[in-house]
Amino acid sequence: MKIYLRTYGCQMNERDSENIAAEFAERGHDIVSDDAVADIIVVNTCSVREQAEQKAIGKLGHVLARRNARRASLPIIGVTGCMAQNRGGQLMRTLPGIDFILGARKTHMVPEIALKMYARRLGGMCHPKPPRLLRDDPESADTYLDISDDLQSHRYINRHLLADTSQTCAYISIMQGCQMNCSYCIVPKTRGIQRSRPPEEILEEAAKLVDSGTKEITLLGQVANAYGRDIGLGGDAFVGLLRSLDKLDGLERIRFTSPHPSFFTPQLTGAYAELRTLCEYVHLPLQSGSDRILKLMRRPYTASKFLEIVSRLREAKPNISISTDIIVGYPGERDEDFECTKEIFEKSGFDMAYIFKYSPRKGTLSAELPDDVPDSVKEGRNAELLDLLAKQSMEYNLRLVDTEQEILVESCAKRNPDAIMGRTRTHRKVFFKSSKNLAELRGKLIGVKIKSATVAALEGYFYDPEPRL
Ligand code: SAH
Ligand code: SF4
Ligand code: F3S
Fold first, then answer.
1. Are 88 and 98 in contact (CB under 8 A)?
2. Is the minimum distance from the CB of 48 to ligand 1 under 6 angstroms?
3. Does the residue 73 lie in any domain?
4. Atom of ligand 1 at shortest distance to CA of 366?
5. According to a count of CB atoms within 10 Å of the terminal CB, is the N or C end of the chain lower?
């Protein structure tokens, strides 16, 4: 059977989709890239901003309309992920053709339910009717304390190892959920409170990945550096986890996303100087440079505390690349607040950033406040930060021209199959041509001499004829 899977949202969703794909593959089905030929279509959704929801709704509208035009009952069309949790009931009413909706913590049920529905459609009415809508009760605080769904999801752990292609770079989920309750954010509602996985399990998963050829691991958690606090492992549990992973023979690089500034301890900044595998790259969300707005956002740190972390990081690794998330146009954000954001943005020297226009999410604290910054002002602030970012990224990249960089070879360039793409430890993309083909180089660490830079990437030539691994 042919399965089409479309993913919106963050790396957690990508990781969940990997699990879904691996389970379908294990049962002998093919994952296809064209939804027009699929027997089963699954859309894994995100609710973090209105735009993310609209994209998924647009996609679902499109596949439903095509099925209607053919007057067919196949393919089976299902939705999972955060919007399925957050707005599942509403989706069922507005797009009644959707066959099933499974909340963010029920993604492990997608293959089973989709395949049962498919069998019934083909005439196997003897199969019991699977549920159409399953999600956690959004009103019940207790729901998320029930960890049986997490245990079920953990059944999937290492599923991706069953696929025959080894992954040079792999994600490992170290926790589920978040309990920070930033005023604007829907994630705690869609994913529940923080639940960390036991360290032994994470280490076992990492060791298996490394055995199968993985060189780089990205640890995933909504507040990755608060890892372990919920299971009584204490404030240093995250650094402890990094230390244990660092000892894995054959593992070359570790990244993680996202840390919260409030838990960025001196031990963690110190780890950058100490650990061989910890890459000189950190995604550290600032959200706003104004203390007044940070307080309203319920982000319990100040701009000066943030700058202190940045300076400790640069002390540990002078060439570290620092990226961030910023929200512009939070309710009540004045010109002077935005000026503070620009100032901290420059002082932090971010060379990468994701800038978002504030989008009220029903059910969050700030959705009760008037969304009073006009869209044109949000747009203007967004554009100003993008200009600043382009300037800072360009400066950062230009400094690398004429240097030799160690890159980990990942894939072909998307737009140019003749060019090969790898990343520096600082997460910069480097494109280069080589007489060797991708199969020979994938997963290898090689030295590349950088010859030119753009805002987004570097171009180099293959400096070291013999890969080092
Ligand atoms: N757990 C991560 C990120 C979660 S969501 C963290 O705490 O950093 C990714 C980003 O989306 C956030 O960092 C924030 O910048 C943005 N975001 C979240 N809710 C938003 C909203 N309502 N409007 C606009 N951007 C939002
Ligand atoms: Fe959302 Fe804040 Fe949790 Fe990040 S830390 S997921 S922004 S509530
Ligand atoms: Fe979106 Fe859910 Fe991730 S809301 S950002 S997919 S946790």
1. no
2. yes
3. yes
4. 22
5. C
pLDDT at 154 over 80: no
177 C-alpha to ligand 2 centroid (Å)? 9
Residues 23 and 168 in one domain: no
Q: Is residue 139 part of a domain?
A: no
- Helices marked H in 27-147: 50-69, 82-94, 110-121
Region 293-318: mean pLDDT is: 98
277 and 166 co-located in one domain: yes
Its pTM stands at: 0.93
Shortest-distance atom of ligand 2 to CA 191 = 6
- The mean pLDDT value of the chain amounts to 91
Q: Whose CA is nearest to atom 15 of ligand 1?
A: 325
Q: Which domain holds residue 374?
A: 147-398
Shared domain for 382 and 458, answered yes or no, is no
Residues 319 and 425 in one domain: no
Classify residue 368: in a domain, yes or no. yes
Ligand 1 atom 4: the closest Cα is on which residue?
222
- Ligand 2-lining residues (CB < 6 angstroms): 178, 180-182, 185, 187-188, 222-223, 260
pLDDT in tens, 277-286: 999 999 999 9
CA 131, distance to chain mean position in Å, is 29
In the predicted model, is pLDDT for residue 79 greater than 90?
A: yes
Tokens 């919260």 correspond to: 260
Return the pLDDT at 148. 52
Clarify whether residues 160 and 32 are in a common domain: no
pLDDT digits (tens, 9 = 90+) for 159-176: 444 444 578 999 999 999
> Using an 8 Å Cβ cutoff, are 322 and 349 in contact?
yes
Write the CA distances from 235 to 133, 229, 240, 301, integer angstroms.
39, 6, 10, 17
How does residue 144 score in pLDDT terms, banded at 50, 70 and 90?
very low
Q: How far is the CA of 355 from the centre of ligand 1 (A)?
A: 10
Q: Is 21 in the pocket of ligand 1 (CB under 6 A)?
A: no
β-partners of residue 352 are 323
Within 10 Å of residue 372's Cβ, how many Cβ atoms?
11
- Write out the two tokens for 301: 């740190």
To the nearest 10 degrees (0 to 180), the angle between helices 266-274 and 237-246 is 10
Amino acid at 24: F
Number of folded domains in the chain? 3
Strands (E), 169-300: 169-173, 175-176, 195-196, 216-220, 253-257, 281-283
